[in-house]
Amino acid sequence: MAAPVTRAQWDDDLQEPAPQGRFGQTPGAHSRSVGTAQNGALQGGLALRESNALRILPQTKRNALYFATAELTGLLERSAEALAQDHPGAVLRVANLSRQEGGDIGPSVSHNSGRDADVMFFAVDRFGSPKQPDNFCHFDATGVADGPTQDAGRYEFDAARNWTLVRHWLSDPDVVVQWIFVAIPLRNQMLDYALRQGEPEGLRRRAAQVLVQPRDSSPHADHFHLRIACPPGDRPGCIDGGGVTAQARDAQIDSLLEMYHHGSPAEQRYARELLSLPPDADLGALPPIEGED
Question: How many CB atoms lie within 10 A of CB 87?
């Protein structure tokens, strides 16, 4: 029998560029994220492509802030199509990404290096029917819109579609999600919905680790701020900062390893595919989850 895979080996593997389908991003052929999200640049930024399932806000178009790395644009486009399959008629609406060459974009302190995207929440009306505000809509701690004035009381946070979007982001095999900034009450609504829907524990645990309310900016009660980790091929010029990447990466690895040990056959096949193990891999040879006996 082959020697068991260790957690240290996973960590070593993830320091190197990963081929497509491997756990980690596929390096973009014509884009490169340089520096940090707060102080960086974007080389060869790719324009996000609109479709029936994805729209860019008009002000974002006017300001030409719809460029990002190949990894981020691909993630947004794939998740929009997948979401439309799960929820027919759903349209992902995207606000600011980055400038084509990166750098500052006004009031935002990040979005400098092509790894950040502002994404509008999905909403329903007070009768539970899908209905989208025209622009940014702020939700209170109960998930009811309280601003701007014309939208107050007209909309509610749609935990179902917003969770589905998060699930597709976290399940993408080619991108590591670093953070999803969102206000705590809205985060909790999505996690509660996932629990009621019987979503895998590993996926819910991973979501709980990357869905965070930022400490140094607005609570993000009016949109998601999605940030992906540096594509492996862009390092060392791309800088995630501190231990943030390790936390995001470890959350994803742990959830997949848990699927090997405790998941259904379908979940085991899913985890095997993402970690690029052969179909006849010995699941018993995989490393135990931290904290297991």
Answer: 16
